[in-house]
Automatic annotation (TrEMBL):
It comes from Marinobacter xestospongiae. InterPro entries: Bact_metal-bind_prot9 (IPR050492), ZnuA-like (IPR006127). This is Zinc ABC transporter substrate-binding protein. Pfam families: ZnuA. SUPFAM superfamilies: Helical backbone' metal receptor. It comes from the Bacteria.
């Protein structure tokens, strides 16, 4: 009996010790599995990442209300980039004014030019309008080509494939789920693209006035000519002299609208529109957190619908 009692007491003591120990062992792996951390320079790449890896912790450096060429390398962004597993940016010098400083200060060994943790979307697809010789006299021109590729219906699926591959490399435990989401995303994108293609038939041959080359890829895909630009040179704000020249340009008479990104000052567009009775179409230049423009497909659909409405309105007035 004494032996049994000692054994019983020993087991109770051992059980009291094992219970919290087992609890710690059970919880420890879960605590060690931190959420994948992804740093996106622009909202479009955050939206694409979210579609492929919804559980990722995302930090977005810019918004639809900011010009992505010019932002401050804030301490919070430096800290986020330092802790990130992957950074996704446009490249082609779009972030040349702030990303190099951010990379240097964050000092993340994986997230650097050519490193496994940095994906530049512009390096995965051909760019329009490259320049062999660039100097400040040309304005804010990107030698690699136009970096605003997120509105190209044919380029985005290619970029999505590269992003999925990089996410799988960085987070191998999620590889199968990422591939499945990519396949579903492609199905949805192809369906949406077919709808835009049908709308493009009516828009083909039309022309618009733009400010900067933010919508160049989409307009070209739709067959819409960016006949005039409010900027006298890329990146330079519209001047009074240039606006007066545009007001007397014969090409303005055939334009269906003035297309302006939300982050741009619309007053020059309003001034010109008042003199020619043109519609001013203000749309986000990138994905927002608002319903209707919260994914790349929704954003492109929103812009296309706006152009169709402007064309119908203009046709009714002429």
């Amino acid at each position: 009996m004494i032996t049994d009692r000692r054994c019983s007491m020993t087991w109770r003591s051992l059980r009291r010790w094992l219970t919290p120990a087992l609890l710690v062992l059970t919880i420890a792996p879960a605590l060690g599995q931190a959420r994948p951390a992804v740093f996106a320079c622009e909202p479009e790449w955050a939206a694409l990442t979210r579609a492929l890896l919804p559980e990722a912790h995302l930090t977005v450096a810019t918004t639809a209300w900011q010009d992505p060429h010019y932002i401050e390398a804030r301490p919070s962004l430096i800290a986020a980039l330092r802790d990130a597993d992957l950074a996704v940016c446009s490249g082609a010098s779009l972030e040349a004014g702030w990303l190099p400083s951010l990379l240097r200060k964050a000092a993340n060994p994986d997230i650097r030019p050519g490193g496994p943790g940095l994906l530049l979307a512009a390096e995965t697809v051909p760019l329009h309008q490259p320049h062999q010789h660039v100097d400040r006299s040309l304005g804010d021109v990107h030698p690699e080509g136009n970096p605003h590729i997120h509105l190209d219906p044919d380029a985005v699926p290619v970029i999505a494939g590269h992003l999925a591959q990089r996410l799988q490399q960085r987070f191998p435990g999620e590889a199968k789920a990422i591939q499945q989401r990519l396949l579903q995303w492609r199905v949805n994108w192809n369906l949406a693209r077919e709808g835009w293609r049908q709308q493009a038939a009516a828009l083909a041959g039309q022309s618009v006035v733009v400010q900067h080359g933010s919508f160049h890829y989409l307009l070209r895909w739709l067959g819409v000519d960016a006949a005039l630009d409010l900027e006298p040179k890329p990146g330079l704000p519209p001047s009074t002299t240039h606006l007066h020249q545009l007001a007397n340009d014969p090409a303005l008479e055939n334009a269906l609208a003035i297309l302006v990104a939300r982050h741009q000052d619309r007053r020059p567009a309003d001034w010109l529109a008042d003199r020619q009775q043109l519609a001013v179409l203000v749309v986000p230049g990138t994905v927002t957190d608002e319903a209707g423009t919260d994914t790349l497909a929704a954003l492109i659909g929103h812009i296309v619908e706006g152009l169709v409405e402007a064309m119908e309105t203009t046709a009714g007035e002429r």
